[in-house]
């Protein structure tokens, strides 16, 4: 029996991962723990092993695709079995539990069939009800829009999967519905019966009302026929999807199919859109295009109709550059048509210059860094204390990094409040007896933060050895998620490059990070008169929700005291 293997969490709460390359092909027979894919997370490139022995029926994605954690990755089964056969994942997910509960509920609702919210965008976990387009008691037809749902990417219409009578609407405007949770219950068994009356060709490749992903209608799995991008394109070109024969996998209708049906060249969506009157699709229609609120606002400011924009973003998304290109009458910047910008003298707008720049996707480690910094900015209440440590008594060739780590461990004994995790939602903190130090490592790919575990129990030589092993793993792209997780406090040695003081960013759930600046020589008055002393600038940032100013100051004082020891 076939089942879907969902992408597991490849790190502590990482939301997604990018397919680097598949290590197997559809039809291959694999063994348990055999690597099946290389995935790039926000922290590292890791191999994903097979959870079972079996045959690969379907690979959900291609190299470069971003897969949401717990979204389908591989469908397994027996040789000759069809990938469309529905089956649960090896371990029950939250969605599976929700569906199971809904199935129990439907058993007591007079035999009515429950229509579950389909995945409205690759792996999106939920959607918000904007408004219902039907009411309980209404009779609906197949593909009739029944609700407007807002996802993280766009507002889309959800069509009815079949003819039937609406018995129950599961939620009201503003409610968040989890993907695969109940959305509508159809009265009695009429809905299921009418779904089964569909012709065989329609059951195999017809539009079951899904937006993205397959949906179960009665006892039949209907293949995905179109996604939000295809629907938007069809609406823009005036194409009836019911008359289009899909050339994609499982009868899926592709953008090329829609363009072909419109009698246009598949080379340019914009050329097709330009033949439509501008009033046919307005810029502020949230159902027609995949564009963020910021992009819509820009289009409104520039007087650009989104119908006249190229879609150069991922999965057909309209970007700011697409809107600007439409405003200037030039094609959007893609791989062969770079954008050219420079800061304006005033007004904050970007103006063309002679130097060309190419936009590049922020992915992998850099993408994770951006997400982590955004999360920190939105949650942490930071404060930074700055002070100098006099390290003139260090012996020649002292291992500065090992000294920094040792000083953090010493300070954690004096003031444990900063070696801590904090949960702002539940107002709980977890003070750690062990010190696991995350060390920021700068690389061309972005910022890695490997963790030296149990640093409080290690000698200076052991600390240095652990750091070198972790750095080697990063250089060889062999770092594991376990090497990057579990830090209780972080060290940033930016002074090895440049910089005296800074405001290091705290990474939740941690509450503190120590930044070490660049050494400097300074004349100081000592017992022997004025002497040249070596000073180390320190910047300690901490979350003021979890730590008091006194705790932060005592911690920093303890760090300085340990650093100023001769050895």
TrEMBL record:
Keywords: Acyltransferase, Lipoyl, Pyruvate, Transferase. SUPFAM superfamilies: CoA-dependent acyltransferases, Peripheral subunit-binding domain of 2-oxo acid dehydrogenase complex, Single hybrid motif. GO terms for molecular function: acetyltransferase activity; lipoic acid binding. Pfam families: 2-oxoacid_dh, Biotin_lipoyl, E3_binding. The lineage of its organism: Bacteria, Pseudomonadati, Pseudomonadota, Gammaproteobacteria, Pseudomonadales. InterPro entries: 2-oxoA_DH_lipoyl-BS, 2-oxoacid_DH_actylTfrase, 2-oxoacid_DH_E2_comp, Biotin_lipoyl, CAT-like_dom_sf, E3-bd_dom_sf, PSBD, Single_hybrid_motif. This is Dihydrolipoamide acetyltransferase component of pyruvate dehydrogenase complex. Belongs to the 2-oxoacid dehydrogenase family. The keyword Membrane does not apply. It comes from the Bacteria. Its EC number is 2.3.1.-. It is an enzyme of class 2 (transferase). Residues 225-262, 290-327 form the Peripheral subunit-binding (PSBD) domain.
């Amino acid at each position: 029996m076939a089942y879907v293997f969902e992408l597991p969490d490849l790190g502590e709460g990482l939301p997604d991962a990018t397919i680097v390359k598949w290590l197997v092909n559809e039809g291959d027979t694999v063994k348990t723990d055999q690597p099946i894919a290389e995935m790039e997370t926000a922290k590292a490139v890791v191999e994903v092993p097979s959870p079972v022995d079996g045959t690969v029926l379907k690979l959900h994605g291609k190299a470069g695709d971003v897969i949401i954690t717990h979204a389908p990755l591989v469908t397994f089964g027996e040789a000759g079995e069809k990938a469309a056969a529905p089956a649960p994942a090896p371990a029950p997910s939250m969605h599976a539990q929700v569906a199971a509960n809904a199935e129990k509920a439907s058993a007591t609702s007079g035999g009515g069939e429950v229509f579950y919210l389909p995945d409205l965008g690759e792996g999106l976990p939920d959607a918000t009800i904007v408004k219902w387009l039907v009411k309980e008691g209404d009779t609906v037809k197949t593909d009739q829009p029944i609700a407007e749902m807002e996802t993280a990417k766009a507002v889309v219409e959800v069509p009815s999967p079949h003819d039937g009578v609406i018995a129950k609407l599961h939620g009201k405007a503003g409610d968040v519905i989890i993907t695969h949770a109940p959305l509508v219950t159809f009265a009695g068994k009429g809905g299921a019966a009418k779904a089964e009356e569909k012709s065989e060709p329609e059951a195999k490749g017809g539009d079951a009302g899904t937006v993205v992903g397959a949906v179960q209608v009665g006892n039949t799995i209907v293949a995905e026929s179109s996604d939000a991008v295809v629907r938007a394109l069809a609406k823009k070109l005036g194409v009836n999807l019911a008359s289009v024969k899909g050339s994609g996998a499982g009868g899926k209708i592709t953008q090329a199919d829609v363009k072909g049906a419109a009698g246009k060249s598949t080379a340019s969506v914009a050329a097709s859109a330009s033949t439509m009157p501008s009033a046919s699709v307005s810029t502020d229609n949230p159902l027609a295009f995949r564009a963020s609120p910021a992009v819509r606002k820009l289009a409104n400011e520039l007087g650009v109709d989104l119908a006249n924009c190229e879609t150069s973003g991922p999965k057909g998304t309209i970007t700011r550059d697409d809107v600007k290109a439409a405003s200037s009458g030039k094609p959007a910047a893609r791989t062969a048509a770079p954008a050219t910008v420079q800061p304006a003298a005033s007004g904050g707008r970007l103006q063309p210059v002679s130097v060309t720049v190419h936009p590049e996707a922020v992915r992998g480690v850099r993408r994770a860094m951006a997400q982590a910094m955004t999360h920190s900015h939105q949650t942490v209440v930071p404060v930074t204390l700055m002070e100098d440590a006099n390290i003139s008594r260090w012996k020649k060739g002292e291992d500065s990094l090992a000294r920094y780590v040792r000083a953090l461990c010493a300070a954690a004994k004096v003031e444990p409040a900063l070696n801590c995790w904090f949960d702002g939602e539940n107002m709980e903190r977890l003070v750690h007896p062990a010190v696991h130090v995350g060390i920021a490592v700068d690389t061309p790919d972005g910022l890695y933060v490997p963790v030296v575990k149990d640093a409080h129990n290690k000698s200076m030589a052991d600390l240095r050895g652990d750091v070198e092993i972790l750095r080697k793993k990063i250089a060889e792209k062999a770092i594991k998620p376990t090497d990057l997780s579990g830090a209780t406090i972080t060290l940033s040695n930016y002074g090895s490059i440049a910089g005296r003081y800074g405001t290091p960013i705290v990474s939740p759930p941690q509450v503190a990070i120590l930044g070490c600046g660049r050494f400097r020589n300074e004349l100081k008055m000592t017992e022997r008169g004025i002497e040249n002393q070596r000073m180390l600038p320190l910047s300690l940032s901490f979350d003021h929700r979890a730590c008091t100013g006194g705790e932060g100051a005592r911690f920093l004082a303890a760090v300085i005291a340990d650093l100023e020891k001769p050895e």
